[in-house]
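Q: Sequence in, structure out?
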Amino acid sequence: MSFSTRDLGKMKRDPRQGGEPSSIFKFSQPVRAGKSGPAGPERQPEFENPTLIVAWDEDAGKLGPKVIEYISRKLDAKSFCEVEPTGFFSLEGVAVENDIAQFPEGKFYYCRRKDLVVFKSNEPPFDRHKFLNGVCDLAQHYCKIRQLYTLGGTISPVAHTDSRRILAVFNQEQIQQELAGLGLENMNWQGPPAISSFLLWVAQRGAIPGVSLWTEIPFYLAAGEDFQAIKATVSFLDKRFDLALDFGELDEQVSRQNAKIDRLRQDDAQIDRYIRMLESKLSLSADEQVELTKKVTEVLEGT
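A: Exactly. Output:
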């Protein structure tokens, strides 16, 4: 996939222009140095040319946010900065999920042990060019990042029993060559660019090597969680950055999800036929896709 400047419209602004990064960010209270540093005054994280990994909360199969949450928890990542929401998000209508108000937010975390910076955010509906330029500006000039990775799920007509391909879009040939041999496949896409594509373009303007990773999500798992896709993405990052992560928790989640769908296939011959068709690379009609999605969602959600 390549970038087309006519698709980017207002995004044409050099990320090195504009105000200081702190103008749209609020930094957390510095943490006191412990075993990883000398005792004394409190301080912010000390970066060593980390890699930035970005995910958006609105994602197919909840892939991006779940990968970020898993890695952050396993590596004991600490939040050090967040986006001031005013100007980027509407605060008039706040979503409520499980009786808890879901306020829009964007937070940076630092995994000191593996020198990774991660950023998880809602997609800003307003002033995206300022938001994305600010993210790249802070990442480049404050965190001193050396590379950018964005994560996302791409909905696909595959079966949940298929392995999940990870498709890639690069902004420089250098990083494409560096990641050769790691199982990524080039992505071909026709349609409006996603916010990760805009971020990759902004990074390119700032000479930051970057790649957008898009993991396949079976269409009938897109509205919920696709643990197999989450595991595939975490596995790639684990190999790429030598994270030495424990996959026991993800393995259990994959097994439970597959077991529920297996029981559905045993109880419903029509659903089994639909999935067998997908496994054979055959297409389903629109009505068949809706029925399969509805039945699988009901089983996984316990309704």
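The two ends are 40 Å apart (CA to CA).
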